Amino acid sequence: MRVLFWSYERGTWQYDLAVAGIVLFVLFSPRIIHYTDQPSLGPAAPASSLVTLQTVAPGQISTYRVDARLLATPTRTPELEHDLHETVQKNVQDLNHGRFEIVRIDPIRGEGGTIAYYDVSIKP
Question: Which pTM does this prediction carry?
Answer without folding.
Answer: 0.50
